[in-house]
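User: Okay, second chain of the day. Same drill as before: sequence in, structure tokens out.
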Amino acid sequence: MSGRPATTPVVRVAGLNVSYRTRRDTVAALRGLSFEIGAGESYGLVGESGSGKSTAALALTRYLPAGTELTAAELTVAGSEVLDLDPPALRAFRASALAVVYQEPGLALNPTMPVGEQIAEVYRLHGAGKHGANRAAAREATLAAIARVRLSPPEQIAGRYPHELSGGQQQRIVIAMALASQPQLLLLDEPTTGLDSRVETEIMALIDQLRAELGFASLLISHNLPLVAAHCQRIGVLRRGVLVEEGPAADVLLAPQHPYTRALIAALPDINASRRSRLQQGLNHYSERSRAFASTTSPPPPATGEAAPDTPLVTVDNLTKRYNRRTALRDVSFTIGRGEVLGLVGESGSGKTTLGMSLAGLTGYQGTISFHVTDRHRGRKVLPRVQVVFQGADASLNPRRTVRQVLTRSIELLGGTQTVEQLAERTGVAEELLDKRPSQLSGGQKQRVTIARAFAGHVPLVICDEPTSALDVSSQARLLDLLTELQERSGVSYLFISHDLAVVRQVSDRIGVLFDGELVELKAADEIFTRPEHPYTQSLVDSALSLRRPKDGR
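Assistant: Same drill. Structure tokens below.
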């Protein structure tokens, strides 16, 4: 395969420069970016957070903040020179030439309208031919679009509101809306983040099939390098706004040339590496993949030994949770051992987060949850047994408080004895961040603060609810090393919830599989991969492995 599209390019970018103005100076987001995408071709952009991936997509649409400086020798999409379009022409261009599928489908859909009406509105306003003028024709086209994205029965789906659909169903609806205007370019900005491996595989396979049927080009933006390699013909690697490597997907993944690309690939979680092998190899001593990106605090001590799942820290019996007519959890029973990491996987809506919130005492339930520990007190107050590291660090940190204030409060509430500076050093929070607010931190820095908050005092159980799902691979690698180090150093138990089986396998002693609110399988982490018994577990493992095969199958 050549390094450039063989057909007439739908996208041609040459010498693209984008800079954002701040109060103090101008920050260069893209510097001299050049690439092409042919008709029907899939092109992927990968890189760390802040590398300029989303800025590149926004430049193609000219959806950029006021005051942004944008220049290019050429910026052409579907035959239109984007920089030359006046406002009416730009509106027409955005309505017909391209469409965007965003990371959060729930935010892209109107919660007050049935999804069928939202798709029909696109046909009426921007659709081609008869769909734009006739409500009945738009309705007919809507049902056909819902069927095309493999949702059934279309009539019932069309009448549902977004909150009545799973995350995967919502993303299919967003794809149907995006394709209603018959675009020549589909921009995919982290379209599967937060979805489990099976749904992720289904969504990406659907996009591949629709691209083959309809002939549109696609630009896939993601921090998930194996996902991009599995579904794109060519890949570009961005680092600090500069395209450092570009080539066929298999070549970039299997024979990277640039040191930064090699470091990204080294940071990928190895789906074949178990927790035991990582500990035996000493990877908890801040592994080579983490050192490739950043210096760390002092290394952790040697591992203290394997977990003791036969000595329960917590016992859960017949846990059931109902929301009105819907049963989120059904008779779930298991134990978590002292010092054990129990991984929990399952599709969106399977009950993973509900289970974690039940253990944390943040939601009511039926059944019993028993902690086999002696309560710690500060005066008359019983100190918490559980802390939670949430998926969305933004939502869990007070935007008005500095990092120092957040950690000081946590030390007080959890009965900690260390100073803020000691806690920050222990959890890898840089001292210069202590007097900053969350809005001034990167995603990885914010998540590190939430981890520090959970370890501000001694708690026997920490629930990690998708703690790395929104992070790029390098930030994810550093956070996983930190979590492993803290667990080995303190002997705390984890309930580690994630949709990423490679991540779960690396950190877990045992893995439980939730399906439709039921715990369908629970066994040693390696056995989940080598001897899955339930059909759903088998489909998860197969999907996770398929996502790590490059486009040409090598």
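The two ends are 14 Å apart (CA to CA).

User: Thanks, on to the next one.
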